[in-house]
Amino acid sequence: MSLLIVRLVVFVLLFWAGFRIWQFWQAKQQLPGDKYSSQTKGDSEMMVRCEKCKVHLPKGSAIKAGEQYFCCPEHQAFFKKE
Ligand SMILES: [Zn+2]
User: How far is the CA of 57 from the centre of ligand 1 (A)?
Assistant: First the structure.
């Protein structure tokens, strides 16, 4: 009978340990994602202006040419010709 209780306690402990490991793994999985989303959020908040059409767009999706930014390759090429 006592052996059954020991087995039960061991089973519960293993289950609890597994649950804690799963929780730890879940928290670990979420951390890099949060860090990444905050980084991309910071990039998207940085707004630049297209030198051709004066449209404001996120720095991440803008085309950089020296100190100037463009919304598309066409405007970058157009600005170079001017
Ligand atoms: Zn433009």
Answer: 9
